[in-house]
Design a protein that fits this description.
By secondary structure, the protein is of the alpha/beta class. The protein has a nine-stranded mixed beta sheet with strand order 1-2-4-3-5-6-9-10-11, with helices on both faces. α2 crosses α3 and α4 runs antiparallel to α6. The longest helix is centred in the N-terminal third of the chain and has 19 residues.
């Protein structure tokens, strides 16, 4: 793994919000294989970007430049008072990821921009107005949290945890104290609002309330996903209670102009008892699971021995 120390970076969104991140950058010319890609890592909801540092260093070792960053309200991008921050998923996509995407395109001029997206990070790919700049996407368990998609054997407990306790505490405190509970990072109230929306379609979460969008604005939201033409490898595992087949496919249907491969693997097929929604980016998977995105980002290919686990391929 790379022993290069990343460089801290501050990226300003269009509304002036300062996002904190890090860059793993090569300073030599790329190999003869062509331009060196730069990879942006989009975190899961309320996960610090530092969690992905080992994976970023791994990609750097294999010839990529890499950018990690915290969404507004999370980690290094948290303001002094989280109660005053109304940010939701739309802000994370249309402002935060958009700012990082444009920075990557300008700072790493003439280099392909690729994205590794965990969970909600895959949704944000469709929300950024500049997503036409993206060359290739790898997602891990990417979906939005529609409760009917939760794994059936865990659905009741997840409903209580995420759709009763989380919004109740958020209403009382003005933000969700996920860090205190050890569930995730403290989280802005707007993200909780979007997470707990009961509608099965993402855009319909913004049909009512003070942050409602007009019908035309919701239609534009959906069109933004179709603006992406980059190939997507959607990776999921069978023991992910969030990333069920219905959840993954619900999101992928929005990317109607992207070539899509959905690869779904039982942990046992890779020699593991469990993987779940969050563990993929732990360094113990460097020589096994991490080889899957590496091959995809380098060559847009999936190992032949994994072909039997492909749920669906759409070769638009």
């Amino acid at each position: 793994m790379s022993d290069v120390q990343p460089t801290p970076v501050t990226i300003h969104a269009d509304d002036g919000y300062a996002l904190k991140g890090q860059i793993w950058r090569h300073h030599d010319a790329p190999d003869a294989g062509g331009p060196r890609p730069v990879v942006i890592i989009n975190p899961a909801t309320s996960v610090r970007c530092s969690y992905y540092s080992r994976f970023a260093a791994f990609l750097h070792t294999h010839g990529f430049d890499v950018i990690t960053y915290d969404y507004r309200g999370i980690g290094g991008s948290r303001p002094a008072s989280l109660r005053s921050l109304q940010a939701g998923w739309l802000d994370w996509g249309r402002l935060d990821f958009e700012a990082v995407l444009r920075m990557a395109s300008s700072t790493f001029a003439r280099q392909p921009v690729q994205v590794v997206a965990h969970s909600i990070g895959g949704v944000l790919v469709g929300l950024a107005p500049s997503n036409h700049l993206i060359d290739r996407v790898f997602t891990m368990g990417a979906q939005f949290a529609h409760w009917r998609d939760y794994a059936s054997h865990k659905r009741f407990g997840m409903l209580i945890k995420w759709h009763v306790i989380m919004p109740a505490l958020t209403a009382a405190l003005g933000y969700f104290p996920g860090g205190t509970l050890g569930w995730m990072e403290d989280t802005p109230r707007g993200v909780v609002r979007d997470w707990t929306a009961p509608q099965p379609r993402f855009e319909d979460a913004f049909r009512h309330g003070p942050h409602a969008l007009t019908e035309a604005e919701r239609a534009t939201l959906v069109k933004g996903f179709a603006a992406l033409h980059a190939p997507i490898l959607a990776f999921s595992v069978t023991d992910d209670e969030f990333g069920t087949v219905s959840a993954i496919e619900r999101l992928l249907a929005y990317f109607r102009n992207s070539p899509i491969t959905h690869l779904r693997i039982p942990p046992e097929a890779m020699g593991y008892h469990e993987i779940g929604h969050f563990a993929f980016f732990h360094s113990r998977f460097e020589t096994s699971l991490w080889q899957i995105p590496l091959e995809w980002l380098k060559a847009r290919s999936v190992r032949a021995d994994l072909a039997g686990f492909v749920v669906k391929t759409n070769a638009r």
